[in-house]
Amino acid sequence: TVAEITVSGNDYLYNNEKTSLEALAAEIAKLDKDAEITITSDDTAAKNTVDELTDKLDELGYKNYKKIEK
After folding, report:
1. How many secondary structure helices (H) and strands (E) does the chain include?
2. Is 1 in contact with 35 (CB distance < 8 Å)?
3. Which helix (H) or strand (E) holds 27?
């Protein structure tokens, strides 16, 4: 399973839809703990927005994520 999340500004995009951190966490929680999660941040992505996402993934027990900057 691969989940792709894009961070742009203060927004999270998942399945091509803008979503909140809470809604995103609920979607991610449906995945296996070993799901591969790709976080792509564009040059407008706020660092704290990315950090909040990785903190939430850690909290949920998802360690298999990688960050890509575009």
Report:
1. 2, 5
2. yes
3. helix 21-28
